[in-house]
Amino acid sequence: MPPIPKIVGEYKLGELIIEGKTKQVYDLPSLPGHCILLNKDRITAGDGVKAHDLAGKAAISNQTNGKVFGILNAAGIRTAFVKIASENAFISTKCQMIPIEWVTRRLATGSFLKRNVGVPEGYRFAPPKHETFFKDDANHDPQWSDEQIVSAGFVFNGVKIGQTEIDIMRDMSIVVFEVLEKAWATRNCALIDMKIEFGVQENGDIVVADVIDSDSWRLWPSGDKRLMKDKQVYRNLTTVAEADLETIKNNFIWISDQLDQIVARSNHLVVILMGSPSDKDHCAKIAKNLTDLGVNVQTRISSAHKGTQDTLKILRRYESEFDKLVFIAVAGRSNGLGPVLSGNTTYPVINCPPVKSDNVNMDIWSSLNVPSGLGCSTVIYPEAAALQAAQIIGLSDFMVWSKLRVKLLSNLNSLRFADKAFNA
Ligand SMILES: Nc1ncnc2c1ncn2[C@@H]1O[C@H](COP(=O)(O)OP(=O)(O)O)[C@@H](O)[C@H]1O
Ligand SMILES: [Mg+2]
What we know:
It comes from Pseudolycoriella hygida. The protein has helices at 57-75, 111-115, 146-152, 163-185, 232-235, 242-262, 280-292, 308-321, 337-342, 360-368, 382-394, 398-422, and strands spanning 7-8, 11-12, 16-19, 23-27, 34-39, 42-45, 50-53, 81-84, 89-93, 95-97, 100-107, 124-134, 155-156, 159-160, 189-201, 206-209, 217-221, 268-274, 297-301, 324-330, 349-351, 377-378. By secondary structure, it is α+β, with helices and mostly antiparallel strands. It has 3 domains: 7-90, Phosphorylase Kinase, domain 1 (2-Layer Sandwich), CATH 3.30.200.20; 96-262, D-amino Acid Aminotransferase, Chain A, domain 1; 268-396, 3-Layer(aba) Sandwich (Rossmann fold). Strands 10, 11, 12, 15, 16 and 17 form a 6-stranded antiparallel sheet that branches. The chain has a 5-stranded antiparallel sheet with strand order 3-4-5-9-8, with helices on one face. A hairpin with a 2-residue loop joins strand 1 and strand 2 (11-12). Bound molecules: adenosine-5'-diphosphate (ADP) and magnesium ion (MG). Magnesium ion (MG) binds at residues 20, 22.
């Protein structure tokens, strides 16, 4: 008789692929290219030398990891995380893991101080500092240079890890850090440093894999080291009493609860106003770009020339409902709309006239040569209008900022891949 398969949530587990200090990874025959990761009720430090059972830890870590990867996936970062499968388990794409820890730091602390004698604790890295370590418990995860990683000649799922791949992973690590730093800042918590791992999926894509939970970072509420809520509390203990484990568990629960507050959306709006319904295609392009960036949009039709009272009524209504508000004015021929809005509101106004090549030289001046006292800007491409509005919203909305940040990285990485393919 074949062995009865283990079941987790609604999934039948396949072979055990690998087991580490805190997780087991099982194949998932019902979802090709995927695996299921089971967290253990286990906390470890010092390359596994210090280790304790901690009832409930698997469930808390699983929650935390799911929320963190939820943020990263929403921001558009390529990750292996798919979804939570049960209290203790989640589904990921199946990867061959790159045995490197990618560490990003905002403030100097911990091992950095030992390796960089003379640097005081709390030294602020701007931009963040990035370091790589080879995953090798027996040799205490030695720091590796790019040259060492290239020379290792790693090939995973057919992908050779060369300098281009390292550059891409380094930049992705920094973006992951910056996104989570901004997210935690909304809870007045300082993300001090963190480590992530990458894997190569069966389709050859390099993605953020493994887990990100309270074991992965240092997190100081109010930027105060004494208030730390992460695994460092455990690392610092010389003896571990039952009460200490309880404190650590409560800290981890606190972190998971805080993450629930972070996912809340902000009260912002971008209003696209068009002077005539004939501009609707141009407006639809702006709206699509904004929606892709996670920005809330409303499109209205109103002519400042022909319906001045209505235009101002619309303006006053949105001013009273949103405190993070941007207007985009779309008007052909003479653009009265944008300048009228701009002369009557404290909120940013972006002109995006739907100019055509035969009349651009005449019409553009109505958007550019505006009376004194007005501060509207003018762009001609729908994407540019959307990006500018999103950048303004992103000043106070970490998710919009994050999507913009990831977009920059995707643009850069596309060029890197294109360059590599061109020279292959
Ligand atoms: N998406 C994935 N696909 C395949 N293996 C993974 C994935 N995510 C993590 N792993 C691997 O799962 C193993 C178990 O994790 P863990 O217990 O944290 O191990 P370790 O003690 O080596 O850190 C690790 O070897 C890790 O690289
Ligand atoms: Mg691990």
